Amino acid sequence: MRDVIGVRGGVKLLGIVAVLLVCLTAFSITAKAQNPGNNAVYNANKTVVGSAAFIDASVFASNANPNICAILKNILNGTLLVNQGGYPATGAVIDARGLNSTNTSMTCTASPWAGITNPPSATILLPATGALPPNTSNPIVIPTKWILPPNTHLIGEGDGIPSGSSTPATTIQAKNGFTDSTMIEFGSSSVCPDPAKVCTGISVENLTLDGQGQSINGITNGFSQDQTYVNHVSLYQIRGVGLLIEQGGPPGNATNSGPYSNVTFDTGSFQGTGGTVCAQILNAGSTHGIHGLSCAAETTDAPAAVLLDSSNNSIEDVRIVGFYDGISVGKNAPAQSNVLLNIIGDTGKGTGASPVRVVHIEPGNAVTDLSIMGLENMGGSGTYSLWDDVTGPQLSDPSVGIYALGDSANGGYSRYTTSPNLPSWAVGSNSPSGACARGSLYSCTGGSSNCGGASAAALWACAMNNTGTLQWVSVK
Q1: Can you give the C-alpha Rg of the chain in angstroms?
Q2: CA distance 260 to 170
Q3: Could you read off the pLDDT of 150-174 as tens digits, one per residue?
Q4: Tell me, what's the pLDDT at 2?
Q5: Taken in order 217, 242, 335, 257, is the CA torsion positive or negative?
């Protein structure tokens, strides 16, 4: 009986081995048929085949492709994908995370899109290059700007400015003597489709742009609209405009772009200049706004952290250090129907002539229908939470809950604020009491017993009595 069982067990074992050998042989044959750069996937027949939709850029590192930008370019133009039928017409994910200083040069001589007439769609996964100084190992060094075509997404391994951090990060660094005004440009008149010259679907995520102290811009968008955004990007040692959203071509060419989220700007050890700006929205049309912005110029030499020179935009969750003006509204163009939310000015008074102001409403251009909520000034004595050159107030309140500037009519503006230092119109169910600002109005909506008793009134005004004291006076 033992022998029979042994024979049967041996037959079963031989059968299993035979099946495994067949499977391994089949897989080996299929695997050998894959083209370099393809990831293996299962097709509808459950067969392992190559996927041209996901391209491993590291297999193309060679002397013929001397640097990371050359490898990316030769993938995008199809030179390296002849055996696969060229670059997929519908676009692909290019995984460049395996490229590093051990298999290629990280110093580029040209943009990956230079010379490509009709750049294709792509999602490019960039490699980790190490944390910022002093631990940057090998940043991607670029000598000229990268113009991103439609439906192009750059995704790094992480942003983050703190020096000495061991967190994986991707840094694109402007070469000394950078030859352009901006490091990354979203679309252009040459790559965005005719006739509108408008691009869509461009984004940059999880990386740092290092300007090395040069007076250049970080990211500029003047041509791309829907599905265009920035998320978790650090702008470091840039002394121009960190994030510029503008009218690059026809009016409103950045309309519907954004949101621009989790952006950090820091000039590092370099002093800000007259042209150093953390972010600017200039004649860009209505965007999805800037949400989550940290601006540090290290010194107060830079005039303004944020320039809001466009209409129908929102800027929220902002912390500002080292600028004379935190957010300057309407300095260069009309700015109407905008919202500022949760703005913190954390800076001391500068040594120059200009005062330090968290929000500055500029004269000269139309600024109307501006809503400010959650304004905080941490600068101390001699600094201002709000400076309104349109209607005059200069608030040094450490915090302002609401400040709303409406339309102009008959030579004046409608305005409402929760600041006790400015006239406002408030509503409550009981008669007003306590300190008030001269000229303020109060509507009492309660019954006569709540609104003053024998001298009950629905409308109250803050006026000065005969002794020179401000108090609430019933009107009617």
Answers
A1: 31
A2: 19
A3: 999 999 999 876 555 567 789 999 9
A4: 40
A5: positive
Q: Give the domain CATH number at 399.
A: 2.160.20
* 254 and 337 housed in the same domain: yes
Inside any domain, residue 102: yes
Domain that holds residue 454: 425-474
Whether 7 shows a pLDDT value over 60: the answer reads: no
Is the distance from CB of 367 to CB of 361 less than 8 angstroms? yes
Question: DSSP letters of 240-305?
Answer: SEEEEEE--SSTTTTTT---EEEEEEE-TTSPP-TT-EEEEEES--S---EEEEEEE-SSTTEEEE
| Torsion of the alpha carbons at 103, 107, 113 and 116, rounded to the nearest 10 | -80
Q: Is residue 274 part of a domain?
A: yes
Distance CA 476, CA 459 (A): 6
Residue 225 scores a pLDDT above 50: yes
And the tokens for 448? 């006569």
State whether 197 and 308 are in the same domain. Answer: yes
Residue 464's contacts (CB-CB under 8 Å, 6 or more residues apart) are 438, 470, 471
Look at residues 286, 289, 290, 358 and name the one whose alpha carbon lies nearest to residue 321: 358
Q: What are residue 248's phi and psi, to 5 degrees?
A: -80, -30
Does 134 score more than 70 pLDDT?
no
Q: How many CA atoms lie within 13 A of 92 on its CB side?
A: 24
How many angstroms separate the CA atoms of 40 and 93, rounded? 14
Q: Sign of torsion, CA 192 73 81 92? A: negative
Sign of CA dihedral 45, 51, 53, 54: positive
pLDDT band at residue 245 using 50, 70 and 90 as cut-offs: very high
Are residues 206 and 282 located together in one domain of the fold?
yes
Last residue in a domain, options 395, 417, 439: 417
Does 380 fall in a domain? yes
Which of 50-59, 246-255, 291-300, 330-339 is the least confident region?
Answer: 246-255
Strand partners, 442: 426, 460
Q: How many domains does the chain have?
A: 2
Q: What is the pLDDT of residues 179-207, one digit of tens each?
A: 999 999 999 988 998 888 899 999 999 99
Mean pLDDT, to the nearest integer, of 233-240?
95
Per-residue pLDDT at 423: 81
The least confident of 107-111, 240-244, 363-367 is 363-367
Return the amino acid letter for 239: R
* Whole-number Å distance between alpha carbons of 407 and 184: 38
Mean pLDDT over the full length of the chain: 85
